Every structure is written in C-alpha cells, then in structure tokens.
Amino acid sequence: xxxxxxxxxxxxxxxxxxxxxxxxxxxCVNKAIKRKIHNINxxxxxxxxxxxxxACLPISALIQNYKKFYNINFNLKIPKDSxxxxxxxxxxxxxxxxxxxxxxxxxxxxxxxxxxEGYESQIAQITQTFIDYMSKDTVCEEGVIKSLIxxxxxxxxxxxxxxxxxxxxxxxxxxxxxNRLAFCVCxxxxxxxxxxxxxxxxxxxxxxxxxxxxxxxxxxxxxxxNGLYGLYQIVKENGGKLTISSGESAIMLSDSKGLQKFDNGxxxxxxxxxTIVDFQLDISKKIDIQTALCKINGFDGFDIRIDNxxxxxxxxxxxxxxxxxxxxxxxxxxxxxxxxxxxxTLRRTKAPIILDFEAVKTCSSSFIDEFLCKxxxxxxxxxxxxxxxxxxxxxxxxxxxxxxxxxRMHTEWENVSDKx
Length: 420
Prior knowledge:
This protein is an alpha/beta fold.
C-alpha cells in the first residue's frame, strides 16, 4: 500500500511519516491538475504514530499553496477526534504574542507566523512558548534548551528573511519514549537555490545550493549566512537528524549515515520551490553550544523569562517567583513542573537560585514533596545548600517541607537497614 495515492478525484493519505510523503502528495496533485480536476477529496485517517512534522506540516501548507495558485477546492475528510484534527491540519493557528503566552503546550499544533508590520515579536514568542513548556515538562541535558532557542529562532527567521514570502509554518512533536524533539519549519517562497543566485555565490544546481547553505558565512547577503550553518553544527554535535529540502532536492544528516544528498523530488508546478527544514534533537544528550558555534563566536541563549529573574539586590543570583511560575500548588504534576524548571534553569545559567514563596499561602504535601523534596534529593545536600535559597516561606508550608524531608530520609534509612 502506497503512503499517498490518487484515485480519480480522491487523494488517499495512509501515512505521513517521511519527507518522501511530501513528494508523493505533490505528484498526486500535479496529476490531478493535468487531468483538469479542480475538486479533490483528501482522505486522512492516519494514526498519530504514522504522522511526523516533516510530512504533515509541508502537506498541510501545500494545500493552502495549491488553493492560492490553482483555485483548487480541497475537501478534507478527517475524523473529528483524530490527531490531524487536533493539530489543525486543515486550519492553521495564527496567534498573536499575547495569545501564544496562554498556550500551555505548543506541541502537536500547526502554527503560522508572519513578517508583516506589527508581528515582529511573534517569532520570539513562539520560541519562548516552546522553551517554557520544555523547561517545566522534562529535565533536559545541558545545552539542549539553549540550542533549541538558537535553532527555532534562526530557522523561522530564515523563512522570513530569505524566502520572499511573509508567511511561514512551524510544527513540533515531543517523542517521550525516544527522548526526541522533532521540529519542522517550512515556507513556499523562492527556495534556497534562487535565493543564493541573488548573491555572489551563484550555485549551479539546487543540490549545490543546499550544500552551500550549511557552510559558514554563506547567504544571499540579507543576513550573516550562519543560520543553517549553526543549525547543522548543533544537530551534528547532538547526534540528531536534519533534513533540508528545497525544490526537487534535499540533503539529510544523520548520525548513522552522515550527510546524504537527493535530487529526485518534485515541486508544485508553476509555483515557488519553497523550503522545508526538519531537525531532531536528543534531549538526553549534552550539547556544547559554544563548541558547535565556536566559529561564529558562540551564542548566549537569550531568554526573556530568565533575564527577568536576575535578583535586583544580588546580580549573581536568580530570584524564582514560585507563584508566578507554577500552574497550581495542589498536585504532584504542578510540583514536578517546578522541579524540572528549576533544574533546567540551573543547568542553563550556572547561577544559584532564590526560591521566593512570598505569594504562596497554601499548598498540598504532595506538591511540596514533588517540588522541593525531590529537588533536594536529586541535587544532594551539599549542592542544594550551595545552589538553592528559600525565602518568604509560610510556616505551614515550611512544616510540610521539613516533614516530607524527614519521612523520605526515614524511608531511605529503613531501606538501608533492610538490605543489611
């Protein structure tokens, strides 16, 4: 069974789990256009496990592109409770910065972004939303979150600066069992080859253009030319995966196969070539971002939330407002989010943290156990005392914390005694 096939005026999508699915979809639509079919039914009944951003996002954006250039009417046949419905496959989300701040989980959603006047801060807020979610959801190895800031910002910025279009698309998935983050960003602008032809480099083919694009300092003159180079270096340092497609060509980087080149794709007839950038990072592997980006003087990983935490009275310490950063104080899940966030913040900044409980008037014992006690146990006594200060804690919450510490220590001693 083909992943994607054309039957009369129906396109059947069985899987969207590989960049080759995008080529298959384009071929199906191009065939329909040649047959002068302008009403196409798209049947999508894929399981979530067979849907990845590197195919799902470009195909979804292509549908909008074909509507624009060919006046094709696409009738999407998507089950109401399906993953595709939930990720906005048919209707992308265009959110302003203030709306993005309210999204707790930006993953598994197709978002659009713009360079039009008034939307200058949209890219920064999309990046911040992804970073804030990951920081609270999972403890990432050192360098991962800083690298994400670079990768997401640079790839989205590349779309708006070099594509000739004012709209781009982004989608991401978090595969917990594999410790993998998968991000895809695409546009249907002029493509990398045409962009570089406007520069001094003049690559002969699309493959030449893609190969040049991941080299240091190569660009069309509108930027420094280090966006895709930096992305390539970070993915390589992490042992992740990177695919860059434009027009009929693609390059793929993987830890097992190195850099591969392909030029047997297909592009939408009579439209722009477009560019698709898909990268995957392993959050369980450290990334030395200074080493990865050493030729372009590294990267400081600016994060406005972290920047606002520096204590006014002692700039060597961060002041972490527990109340402002928590999603509640009554559950273990809320406590786990804070514990993860504090550990990720320590790893990113290498600075000690003041945990300020001033606005927290009550909490559950399970919340404080999951947050502070597990933080204490994971850091150890010496590191906890060196890196963590607790201020403005209510006496009742202090009692819960001390009691939880006592109970956990007591349990540990009993386990040691039982083993003897």
